[in-house]
Specification:
The chain is an alpha/beta fold. The protein is built from 9 helices and 14 strands. It starts with a helix and ends in a 10-residue tail after the last helix. Belongs to the LysR transcriptional regulatory family.
Length: about 300
């Protein structure tokens, strides 16, 4: 039994939840794919897959093995690329993860341009707002917004995101426009779950100003914050890559622009122990360059 081939077949079957689809992707017969899995299960002494006439699903042992098998295959690919990195044109598949709103509004167009530039690279993009495990879930690159916890992960800053204080024209007409951040304590404020939402801090003419804020809505997605603010629910600190278009369309108004909220770093995170390989290095360099070139696109329009 070729263990690497068997693991590759197992990964494909697990991801497709189908022997037939996995066999087609690997240019194998269904019976050959089934034999590879049977040999692997016999070698390991455990059942990896539950099989019925309608579906294929992972056993608990299969879920654990899938994570490890992905790591093995990723390390094999990395080892091959590292061995001949100087001679290789960037190529191969990259499994990338990013937050939902950032991926939809910002990353998607960048990746389209990247794939045009590098025709031999494929990208499998997953968008989620949960904190994924880079190693366990087999990602080559994860984009994370905000402070990174201490870890063995390899990270490079590729951009900066600024939060804009925004509200709808209707809310401002009904409740008034704050003249100072301290006025926010008397307004409804919409919060992002997982942040220090009860206190908002700004840098202004007199230095740092911290304001205790309250509100009736919290959410874990910045599109939801923007929609609620646009609907007149109150003020929100909205990332510039989401807020700018709404400001240009008149759905939101930036308030107190002379008081800047904190800037948030965007990092490209890799699994530990990986030397830069052409495909990963190409994507990280491309994203850093695109952020530098496009930074003006995410500045709100100023009166006059």
């Amino acid at each position: 039994m070729n263990k690497l081939v068997a693991m590759e077949v197992f990964i494909k079957v697990a991801e497709a939840a189908s022997f037939t689809r996995a066999a087609e992707e690997l240019s194998l017969s269904r019976s050959a794919a089934s034999d590879h899995i049977a040999d692997l299960e016999q070698h390991l002494g455990v059942r990896l897959l539950n099989r019925t006439t309608r579906r294929v699903s992972l056993t608990s042992e299969g879920e654990v093995f899938l994570s490890r098998a992905r790591q093995v295959m990723s390390l094999m690919e990395t080892a091959e690329e590292e061995a001949s990195a100087g001679a290789l044109t960037p190529h191969g598949r990259l499994r990338v993860n990013a937050p939902v709103s950032f991926g939809q509004h910002h990353l998607g167009p960048m990746l389209t341009d990247f794939l045009h530039k590098y025709p031999e690279i494929e990208i499998e993009l997953t968008l989620t707002d949960r904190l994924v495990d880079v190693v366990e879930e087999g990602f080559d690159l994860v984009l994370r917004i905000g402070r990174l916890p201490d870890s063995t992960l390899v990270a490079r800053r590729v951009g900066t995101i600024r939060l804009l204080l925004c509200a709808s024209p209707d809310y401002l007409a009904q409740h008034g426009t704050p003249q100072h951040p301290a006025d926010l304590a008397r307004h409804s404020c919409i919060h992002l779950i997982g942040t220090a939402w009860h206190t908002w801090s700004f840098e202004g003419p007199e230095g740092t100003v911290s304001v205790p804020v309250t509100g009736r809505l919290t959410a874990n997605n910045v599109d939801t914050l923007m929609s609620a603010a646009s609907a007149g629910m109150g003020f929100s600190l909205v990332p510039n890559y989401v807020a700018v278009e709404a400001i240009r369309q008149g759905r939101l108004v930036e308030v107190l622009p002379e008081y800047r909220s904190r800037e948030i770093q965007l990092h490209a995170v890799q699994p530990p122990g990986h030397l830069p390989v052409p495909k990963t290095r190409a994507l990280i360099d491309f994203l850093a360059e695109q952020f530098r070139l496009r930074s003006h696109e995410f500045e709100p329009p100023r009166p006059g």
